[in-house]
Specification:
With 277 residues, this protein is mainly beta. It has 2 domains: 36-137, no CATH class; 147-249, Thrombin, subunit H (Beta Barrel), CATH 2.40.10. Helix content is 7%, strand content 38%. The strands form 2 sheets. The chain has a 6-stranded antiparallel beta barrel. It has a 6-stranded antiparallel barrel with strand order 9-10-11-16-13-12. A hairpin with a 2-residue loop joins strand 10 and strand 11 (176-185).
């Protein structure tokens, strides 16, 4: 899992030269930091649904394993849990725009997918007026193989660009299992610690098509920081250096008419809690 580790600090210095973008580049999807956020240990993004309105409370999306309370257990799902987490929003040029504060976790899990949806204590309109930050729109379906993509890290202020290689039926890492994981075509998206929670952005539409969460660092089999792929027949494959993201479009399958998350809605693809706190 791509959490920050202190030994990667030198890498950050080495990659800062990649951050500059021209005005022409900034106009292209996935080439600037529009909607991007940073946490104390991870990356994140300010997001909206296609149906969101400016008066809705704003949402911030990151990985479940970036939760301020530590890793979530398999089967554990957080629903409407209070939070006061401070979140830094960035300007398109990656400089600091300002902070927002979460007031609750609407949904969080490391089961099936790996994400937390924070609701912050102000609206999209308020954030636009106060900080001039606009959100990314969540795509309503997962990406196709070969689709152009960018992993945009607010923690490192770095953009990785590549394409989708494949959708993996099952990805296992330690005690956790994720379904329909997005595998990145290398080279280009050799993500590092601190990139956890970065949005996977379509370089065609600019929509968020997934969320970056892990990669196989040492070539080990199905251990923490060394996920393994499991195909439909149960065959296990390990590829050192492979990097992956998780599905976010499943949120739409659980949305109500008022844009709240209902895990009991017919057709909801998000996991229901077997452990809850």
């Amino acid at each position: 899992m791509k959490l920050f580790r202190t030994f990667l600090a030198a890498t950050a210095v080495a990659t800062t030269t990649l951050l500059g973008t021209s005005a022409a580049q900034a106009a292209a999807p996935g080439t600037d930091f529009t909607g991007i956020a940073a946490l104390s240990n991870c990356s994140a993004s300010l997001v909206r649904y296609a149906e969101s309105v400016s008066t809705d409370k704003a949402l911030v999306l990151t990985n479940g394993h970036c939760y301020e309370g530590g890793f979530l257990q398999p089967g554990q799902v957080l629903v409407n849990k209070a939070s006061t987490r401070s979140i830094t929003l960035l300007k398109p040029d990656s400089s600091r725009a300002g902070t927002v504060r979460a007031d609750k976790i609407l949904f969080g899990t490391m089961t099936k997918t790996d994400m937390i949806v924070y609701e912050v204590n102000e609206t999209y309109a308020s954030i636009k007026s106060r900080l001039n930050v606009t959100p990314l729109t969540l795509a309503k379906q997962g990406p196709a193989n070969g689709a152009g993509m960018a992993v945009v890290s607010g923690y490192w202020k770095r953009i990785y660009t590549c394409s989708v290689q494949a959708t993996i039926p099952q990805l296992r890492e330690g005690d956790w299992t994720w379904q329909n994981s997005i595998k990145y075509q290398q080279p280009g998206c050799e993500t590092i610690g601190g990139t956890s929670g970065s949005p996977v952005v379509s370089t065609t539409t600019g929509e968020m098509i997934g969320i970056n969460n892990t990669g196989n660092e040492d070539g080990e089999r199905c251990t923490v920081n060394n996920p393994c792929e499991v195909d439909a027949n149960g065959n296990v494959t390990v590829e050192q250096g492979a990097a992956y993201g998780q599905q976010t479009w499943w949120l739409y399958t659980c949305l109500t008419a008022t844009r709240s998350i209902d895990l009991n809605k017919s057709g909801c693809e998000l996991p229901k809690p077997t452990r809850r706190r």
